Amino acid sequence: MQAEKLQSNSTPTAVKPANQKNQFVNDIKSVLHEAEEMLRAAASASGERAVELREKALVTLKTAREAMQDAQSAALAKGKVAARATDEYVHEHPWKAVGIAGAIGLVLGLLLNRR
């Protein structure tokens, strides 16, 4: 089931971040599609089968929501670590940081001026 696939992808791996992000997005889309199909089947079914399909869909959606919350927390934590590292670097090497920022500004200015 897609829920197991989602949970297995929530652990850190040696995959490149872009590939990991794409895989995560594809897994979420797949899980949501599966849940939609279950809900459609539940709408046309009746009795116990409909209840069972709705419950499966709700479990699938809950798993997807939890995986997205985990990914959001991980991204927030990585962002905080990057911000902290940048802040420390700027405090330790202020003139170097000013030079880098100036160079980036110059390059961006040249690129934007060409358009």
Can you lay out the helices and strands and say which pair or pack?
Elements: H1 2-9, H2 17-44, H3 48-92, H4 94-114
Helix pairs in contact: 1-2, 1-3, 2-3, 3-4
Gross geometry = elongated
- Give the total of domains: 1
- Share of helix, binned: over 70%
Strand content: under 5%
Largest β sheet strand count, sense and barrel closure: none
Average pLDDT metric: 81
- The rounded Rg comes to 23 Å
Low-confidence stretches: 1-15
Number of helices: 4
What structural class results from the helix and strand content?
A: mainly alpha
Please give the number of β-strands.
Answer: 0
Note the gap between the termini: 49 Å
SSE string: HHHH
Structure write-up:
The chain has 115 residues and is an all-alpha fold. The chain has one domain (2-114). It contains 4 helices and no strands. Helix 1 (2-9) runs antiparallel to helix 2 and helix 3 packs across helix 4. The longest helix is centred in the middle third of the chain and has 45 residues, at 48-92. The radius of gyration is 23 Å and the shape is elongated. It starts with a helix and ends with a helix. Residues 1-15 have low confidence and may be disordered.
Q: Which features would summarize this protein structure in a list?
A:
115 residues; mainly alpha; 4 helices; 0% strand; elongated
